[in-house]
């Protein structure tokens, strides 16, 4: 999906570089290294997909996830939680208000790209169903 807006919220600089390289050509990628800025960016930029590190230094990632997927969120991006691979994988789990996926942060570039494309597609299907 060319033109997909992807926001990476992560405080690991080497991972950020890996993501920017892996996602090149999928759309516009923006990065923030803290949860507070990430939430502001979601509100103003309205990304299609947010890749969220749950272990941020400034905000509890689970609290941020609740804000991104809760009923009061004006903009609903697809969210991919970044995991270390223990018990995770690239599967989608349905949250209370919005689907949330997981992706292993050490996955090869082609798997990261596939996860982002799948998340964006899922988001568009859910939005279409909500307006039908």
From TrEMBL:
GO terms for molecular function: phosphorelay response regulator activity; transcription cis-regulatory region binding. The modification 4-aspartylphosphate is found at residue 53. GO terms for biological process: regulation of DNA-templated transcription. InterPro entries: CheY-like_superfamily (IPR011006), Sig_transdc_resp-reg_receiver (IPR001789), WalR-like (IPR039420). Residues 5-120 form the Response regulatory domain. SUPFAM superfamilies: CheY-like (SSF52172). It holds the Pfam family Response_reg. GO terms for cellular component: cytosol; protein-DNA complex. Signal peptide: none annotated. Keywords: DNA-binding, Phosphoprotein, Transcription, Transcription regulation, Two-component regulatory system. This is Response regulator receiver protein.
């Amino acid at each position: 999906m060319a033109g997909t807006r992807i926001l990476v919220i992560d405080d690991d600089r080497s991972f950020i570089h890996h993501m920017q390289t892996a996602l090149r050509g999928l759309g516009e990628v923006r990065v923030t290294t803290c949860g507070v800025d990430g939430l502001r960016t979601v509100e103003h930029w309205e990304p299609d997909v947010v890749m969220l590190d749950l272990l941020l230094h400034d905000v509890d990632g689970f609290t941020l996830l609740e804000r991104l997927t809760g009923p009061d969120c004006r903009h609903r991006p697809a969210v991919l939680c970044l995991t270390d691979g223990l018990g995770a994988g690239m599967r989608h789990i349905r949250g209370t208000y919005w689907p949330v996926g997981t992706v292993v942060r050490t996955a090869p570039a082609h798997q990261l790209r596939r996860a982002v494309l799948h998340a964006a597609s899922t988001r568009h299907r859910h939005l279409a169903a909500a307006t039908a």
